[in-house]
Amino acid sequence: MAATPLFNAPMALGTAAFGDDDRGSWNVGQERAHRLVRHAFDRGITLFDTGSSYGGGLAEQRLGDALAAIGRRDAVQIVTKLYFPSAPGAGDGGLSRATMTATLDRSLARLRTDHVDMLMIHRWDPSVPLEETLGALEGFVRSGRVRSIGASSMSAWRLMKALGLQRHGGLAPFTAMQGYYNLLYREEEREMIPLCREEGLHYMAWSPLARGRLAGPAADAARLATDPLAAARYDDALDTPVLAALDAVSAGTGVPQASLALRWLSERGAQPVIGASTEAEIDVALEAVTGTTPMPDLSPVEQAYRPHPVLGFDPKAEQALG
Predict the structure, then answer these.
(1) Residue 248 falls inside a structural domain
(2) Is the dihedral of CA 74, 133, 173, 317 positive or negative?
(3) Number of domain units in the chain
(4) CA–CA dist 77, 59 (Å, integer)
(5) Residue 221's pLDDT is what?
(6) Structural domain includes residue 179
(7) Is 322 part of any domain?
């Protein structure tokens, strides 16, 4: 796989929390979103990850406004995603050709650009033939509005089927996978990550700190208490031993839990998508993934891991028509 600035970036700044606080107290709002993008760019971060549904479209709009103010579109890479509706019951989700085209039109307008560097399908749409979805993506690439394509959170067999169809039909191939992967959830190591290595796909990790659970005392306690997804992806019996082991390594080395967790990902070739809410969090994350000091021994943390049920997507909902 050819090296690109997107794949070479040490991390991406995620924008899932660029909405307003009516979508959760952890959302940062417009002014802080602009500050975070500016700070990230000034620190050398050029990869920005967003999605058509984040903040009901506000994330793309605010990212686009912030990057337009910087005025260096040629120096940044934008990844956006489509599938989820902009709001419950909005009727604008899915992966039909018509829906994808309309969603991409809106995304480009909000991002204030004529192209995105990567467009990802956020999940599979079992109601649409796979060939229709892949054909629409091929058309976007041919049009120049999308430079490359990727996918997020699915079964390895589903990704391999798509890659096979793309290869057989001479279609633009998926070149990246973005999955749920961190010290608390390592099921991606069983099939997805080996498949990506075998097929030459870049791997990005969303929720690298498990919505803050891996940040130790720096975590947003209010979010952990009120974010339904934080609760849904946490199993006290399975995860407490890992967190305890991470706390022990942090106490013994003086390295913050978040830094340990991010460095662990980076050293495994996974590019973390960081959902920072402050400039300081960006700085901590960047130091973690670019630092040169030796990594503390995390084998006690790794050994504390126990298998989990599938999280991040529903494997039973992947029986596409094609």
Answers:
(1) yes
(2) positive
(3) 1
(4) 15
(5) 76
(6) yes
(7) no
